[in-house]
Design brief:
alpha/beta; Rossmann fold; six-stranded parallel beta sheet; 13 helices
Length: 323
């Protein structure tokens, strides 16, 4: 059975879809999964053992120069790759116009179907063309975790029950030897209202240092780099990481002692790696995107933001659970 996953972006959303791929190959051992994804997130999908082939779709770049010769050539190559295989099931896990467009272009095997969500779920985007191109629509609960949404959609699409065993998708990549005495600190996020105050980070990292652990600040843009440098200047023994590409970020995180971070893509990678992890939320959206299956992973939720004591006590719990 050949299955096509369509989940183009973003980083956290792609991470949340990895367990669905793991479920498919566990429930249907003969299944072979291809995945359409934006190139920026392809290294993440390639690290998942359930995925056989990745088809890059660089829609963001194509939109910037739609008439350029390079764009036209890339578009032809994309269509060629997409249509090279006929699929028994094309599953739109995104629910947007762009993913519906890809679903419509994909080639079906005899008896194959295009499958999509019948409606949006709480906190997620959803656009009508998803329904227009699907051969089969699947109703999902309104109030459902992002990980469970993908798992449930695939289970109903392919006719199996969601496996009791949860496989996050990247845990096999976690380092099996002695971990470095570093805690990766994910302080940056795309939304300012998700940030944790710098003074809180400084106090927390001083407590980590007292445990013999070195804080390592990661960053993905210039603003995050400046914040990381400000934090490092106040903390003896802390480090600012280079601006790692995604494959190196995954490798470095896998070798770390654990991760503490706000609600952002790298924090969700920590969950997929099965690492000891505390995820910080300033408002109650952890129910739909936070860690949920492992005792060594905890969400901390409080308004206007969690205290240092709350985060540090949660860190103590995940350390104990991971031993």
């Amino acid at each position: 059975m050949r299955v096509l996953f369509i989940k183009l972006s973003s980083l956290g959303d792609v991470v949340h879809t990895l367990p669905a791929a793991m479920d498919v190959v566990r429930a249907c051992p003969s299944a072979q999964i291809d995945w359409v994804v934006e190139p920026a997130f392809a290294p993440l999908v390639s690290a998942c053992p359930a995925v056989q082939r990745i088809i890059d779709m660089d829609l963001r770049r194509w939109r910037c120069r739609p008439c350029a010769a390079q764009t036209r050539a890339a578009w032809r190559d994309f269509k060629s790759q997409l249509k090279a295989q006929a699929y028994d099931a094309v599953i739109d896990l995104q629910g947007l116009t762009k993913s519906a467009w890809v679903s419509r272009m994909a080639r079906l095997a005899p008896g194959g179907q295009r499958i999509a969500m019948a409606c949006g779920t709480e906190g997620s985007s959803y656009e009508a063309p998803t329904r227009w191109v699907a051969d089969r629509l699947i109703e999902l609960p309104w109030h459902i975790h992002a990980v469970d949404r993908g798992r449930e959609l695939c289970a109903r699409a392919l006719g199996y029950s969601v496996p009791a065993q949860f496989q996050p998708g990247l845990a096999h990549a976690a380092h099996s030897g002695r971990r470095q005495a570093q805690v990766v600190c994910v302080h940056g996020t795309s939304r300012a209202d998700k940030l944790w105050p710098e003074s809180q980070w400084v106090e927390l990292c001083r407590r980590l240092s007292d445990q013999g652990l070195s804080p390592l600040f990661v960053h993905g843009n210039d603003d995050e780099l400046e914040r990381a440098q400000r934090l490092q200047a106040q903390l003896t023994g802390s480090q600012v990481a280079p601006r790692w590409a995604l494959p190196e970020l995954i490798r470095q995180m896998a070798n770390s002692f654990g991760v503490i971070g706000v609600d952002s893509g790298p924090s969700h990678i920590a969950v997929a790696l099965g690492l000891p992890h505390v995820q910080i939320y300033n408002f109650d959206t952890a129910w739909r995107s936070g860690p949920q299956h492992a005792p060594q992973q905890i969400s901390v939720v409080s308004t206007p933001y969690p205290s240092v004591d709350q985060v540090f006590q949660s860190w103590q719990k995940v350390r104990s659970a991971a031993r």
